[in-house]
Specification:
This protein has about 100 residues and is mainly α. The protein contains 6 helices and no strands. It has one domain (about 20-100): Cytochrome Bc1 Complex, Chain D, domain 2 (Orthogonal Bundle), CATH 1.10.760. The structure holds heme C. The site of heme C has 23 residues, from helix 2, helix 3, helix 5 and helix 6.
Length: about 100
């Protein structure tokens, strides 16, 4: 009984917390990697078809600001659907940082 209560409290604390790096990687893998690829290169079938940028390239990264990236994630662009109903502003912000980290 005590262990169950503890588990419930722990899982509540976890889901209420700010998006961790591991969560962000998982969100990326689930929602974004089908087009943008796990490594951000855009080297996927869908990515090539829809013409996504290669985020490992510093020149591509320089083409948009953090604010623009967050706006595209929340409102969508071309083939990319808006994610504002699926992700919290914190998760979107964490995704922008995740994208920046792809740069080599
Ligand atoms: C259906 C394919 C698809 C999915 C899924 C997808 N994207 Fe995109 N994404 C695109 C396309 C197409 C563009 C616009 C191409 C461009 O301008 O480089 C784009 C553009 C972007 C941009 C703006 C880059 C720029 O050059 O202005 C960001 C940031 C971005 N996506 C992040 C994400 C994140 C984060 C996710 C997951 C939550 C995601 N994308 C999911 C296809 C997708």
């Amino acid at each position: 009984m005590k262990i169950q209560t503890l588990l419930v409290i722990t899982s509540m604390a976890l889901s209420a917390g700010v998006a961790s790096a591991a969560d962000t990687a998982e969100i990326w893998a689930k929602n974004c990697a089908s087009c943008h690829a796990k490594d951000g290169s855009g080297n996927t079938m869908m990515g090539k078809k829809s013409g996504v940028g290669n985020y490992t390239d510093a020149k591509v990264q320089a083409k948009f600001t953090d604010e623009e990236a967050a706006k595209v994630i929340s409102e969508g662009k071309e083939k990319m659907k808006p994610f504002k109903d699926k992700l919290t502003p914190e998760e979107i912000k964490a995704l922008v940082a995740h994208i920046r980290a792809f740069k080599k």
